[in-house]
Amino acid sequence: MTAPSQNSHLNPFKREAQPHGLGRWVPGLKLLRTYKRRWFLRDLSAGAVLTTILVPVGMGYAEASGLPAICGLYATMTALVTYAIFGRSRILVLGPDSALVAIIAASVLPLAARGSAHAVELAGVLAILAGVMCVAAGLLRLGFITDLLSKPIRLGYLNAIALTVILGQLPTLLGFKVKGLDVLTEASGIVKGIAGNQVNHTAFAIGGTCLLIILACKRWLPKFPGVLLAVFLATVVVSLFNLAHQTGLSVVGEIPRGLPSWRVPEVSEKELNLLFHSAIAIALVSFADMSVVSRTFALRGRYETDDNKELFALGLCNVASGFFQGFSVTGSASRTPVAEAAGAKTQLTSVTGAICVALLIVIFPSLLMNVPHTALSAVVICACLSLVDISSVIELYGVRKAEFVACLACFLGVAVAGVIPGIFIAVGISLLVFIIRASRPYSAVLGRAKGLKGYHDISRHPEAKQIPGLVLFRWDAPLFFANARLFRECALEAIANAPTAVKRIVIEAEPVTDIDSTAADALRELEHDLNAVSIELGFAQMKGPVKDQLKNYGLFQKIGEENFFPTLGVAVDAYVHTHQIEWHDWDGKKCCKHAPHSGPCPDEVMSDSL
Question: What residues does 537 pair with on adjacent strands?
Answer without folding.
Answer: 505
